[in-house]
Design brief:
Helix content: over 70%
Structural class: mainly alpha
Order of helices and strands: HHEEHHHHHHHHHHHH
Strand content: under 5%
Strand order of the largest sheet: 1-2
Number of strands: 2
Number of helices: 14
Largest sheet: 2 strands, antiparallel
Radius of gyration: 25 Å
């Protein structure tokens, strides 16, 4: 065997070794914590004493607890809200400003909120939605009804108002993604459609919308995953209250683990939330890919 061939075979055998550090980091930071969380979810554990095997007790308690069922309902409400409001508003902003002379400047007010954190969004909108906050004072100044409404004092209205707050933050980045999708559409079919008399909604429905399908899949997929793990805005604005009326699964997981020191119950909620997120992502992508094959 020539020296060149021997060197190639030696390099091919050694190549996997270069991936070992990355694989070790992934195993240390992802797989091992997941396995530990899975084990803890089947135990009674307060974070101090050794875990005691409890079988399915944590899962039975989770599915029989009305507060956790309410948290699941609120989480689903977040999914529906985030898949509709920020996505539709982002698409509307992108379509209306695309090709406009001042399009970049018109999109800027929608993009700026995305630069701040979820905690900051919660603080700002908490100030706006308090009974004596900015919204109530503005309504009272103009003599409009709702000046003394407790927007965050009862469910599910408090959850809906928080979805509006996150929509204010998320619509801008969705608009930016849709603009990228619009820029990838060839100009010739659009010009041909315009020559055939298509304009306005007809042009959008028959030309723009079908070709925005790939970027729409990305935007909706990110919205689903983000809504399932909603935590920071809810914690800052209501801490899941009043009572547990606005809790999400992520917030319930945090409270069970770090407030009540029930690590086994918190791990069970965490594992359930991870499985729901994974299943929702897979089902959505399979649906989108299957629909795309049928259209092709």
């Amino acid at each position: 065997m020539s020296r060149k061939g021997l060197s190639s075979r030696t390099g091919a055998r050694a190549a996997p070794l270069f991936g070992l550090p990355a694989a070790g980091v992934v195993a240390l930071l992802l797989y091992l914590p997941f396995l530990w969380t899975t084990y803890v979810s089947f135990t009674s554990y307060d974070g101090l004493a050794l875990p005691v095997w409890a079988g399915l007790a944590n899962y039975q308690a989770m599915f029989s607890d009305p507060d956790l069922i309410g948290a699941l309902v609120n989480t689903l409400l977040w999914v529906v809200g985030m898949v509709t409001l920020p996505v539709v508003l982002g698409l509307l902003v992108a379509v209306l400003t695309y090709g406009h002379r001042w399009g970049s400047w018109l999109r800027l007010p929608f993009l700026l909120p995305y630069a701040i954190s979820g905690v900051a969004v919660g603080v700002i909108w908490g100030f706006v939605l308090q009974p004596d906050g900015a919204l109530g004072q503005a309504l009272g100044f103009f003599g409009l009804p709702g000046a003394h409404t407790g927007w965050l004092q009862s469910g599910p209205g408090n959850t809906l108002m928080m979805i509006v707050a996150v929509t204010w933050q998320a619509a801008g980045v969705n608009a930016l993604l849709f603009v990228v999708g619009l820029q990838s559409i060839p100009g010739e079919p659009l010009e041909a459609a315009r020559l055939d008399g298509a304009d306005g909604f007809r042009l959008f429905r028959h030309q723009l919308w079908p070709q925005l399908r790939p970027i729409t899949t990305v935007v909706v997929g990110l919205s689903i995953v983000g809504s399932l793990k909603t935590f920071d805005v809810v914690w800052v604005m209501t801490q899941g209250g009043p009572g547990t009326s606005s809790e999400t699964l992520a917030l319930s997981m945090y409270k069970e683990t770090f407030v009540l020191n029930d690590y086994g119950q918190g791990a069970a909620i965490a594992l359930f939330l991870s499985l729901v997120t994974f299943a929702a992502s897979i089902l959505y992508l399979r649906y989108q890919l299957g629909d795309a094959r049928e259209q092709a």
